[in-house]
Amino acid sequence: MITKGLILLINLLLLSFTIWGTIQQIATQKETNRVMAQVHDNIRLAGKLTADTNQKLKPLQATAESIEEMNTKLSRTNGKLQKMNGSLSRVVESEGKIVKGLDSLNGNTALVITQLNALKAQNEELIAPSSRVAGQTQQEHATLERLYSLTGTSIRELATVNRKFAVLGALPLPR
User: What is the superkingdom listed in this entry's lineage (predicted)?
Assistant: First the structure.
């Protein structure tokens, strides 16, 4: 009888543990169900918030497209400016060559004037027999002095132009 009582007691204990475990599992499942319902509600709310956010961000998409278009135009403008810088650099280089050539011409003109002055002195010794030739030489001398003056003016004008283009020459050259 003790054995039957002990077996009954063990069965009652096992049944109690099973009932207690089932009650605990039910309570845990209720809590899980409550949490899952909250998660479901939060997902639904997140979906609504995402839709609202997408709606509010639509104007930003147009802004981004405008900025992208502006960037494209700025890139094209940059390319054109680089080409222009290259052209201006070549112009400045050509003008430098012109100025050097004019300097050389100016030096040669000064040399001619010096030589003409020497020739004038020799002609003065021959004034009587060569007055007609001397008059022509003086006219040529005056013309060359005007040319010398005009050459100097040209050099000054080109130097002014070069100074104006020097600012543009400081821009970066295309690579």
Answer: Bacteria
Report the b/e string of 128-154 with b at 16+ CB within 10 A: eeeeeebeeeeeebeebeeebeebeee
Q: Which two three-digit tokens encode residue 96? A: 């430098």
Question: Angle at Cα 80 formed by Cα 74 and Cα 81, nearest 5°?
Answer: 85
Domain annotation covers residue 63: no
Assigned domain for 36 exists = yes
Exposure of 11 in the CB half-sphere (CA atoms within 13 A): 6
In Å, how far from its chain's centre is CA 39?
A: 51
Same domain? For 98 and 151 the reply is: yes
Give residue 30's domain range.
1-46
Q: Is 51 among the domain residues?
A: no
Residue-wise DSSP of 62-113: HHHHHHHHHHHHHHHHHHHHHHHHHHHHHHHHHHHHHHHHHHHHHHHHHHHH
Give the pair of three-digit tokens for residue 58.
């639509």
pTM over 0.70: no
**163/97 same-domain check:** yes
DSSP H or E run through 155: helix 127-169
